[in-house]
Amino acid sequence: MKLFLLITILAISGCSNMIDKQVEWETIEPENYPVLRSVGYAPIDSQRGNNKTAKTLMAIKASKLDAYRELAEQVYGQKIDGDQVLANLVIVDTQLQASVEGVIRGARVIKSYPVGENSYATELELDFSQVQDIYLSTAKPRKVKKVRYY
What we know:
alpha+beta
């Protein structure tokens, strides 16, 4: 009797793959979207260039990259590696290294302006509703809305 019951259960579960189904999907929307802001700075005189105009343009680009780095830190976090060397139970050397890695899409420059006589600043904004739109256009995340079996 037990063997017959086991064979019947296996036969029924094996036939379940033969049932057709229709799955309806819907996209997932968060309730609210944060807006992140960052500011990047760069010195003008330290830039490479033959004249003040070339150095200023390089500082504008460097400040924009610094602002993107700050946005990446806010989105992905920062990786910190540390190392200490001991000799005779005395710390001889301490090293810290920080890095950030990520892709930022959809950020826009709010403004770029000089700060004092020797620095440049760039302000960026990252609106996550726009990031969501970019993500939906490429990834199409979905969840099961309804399943109908035939």
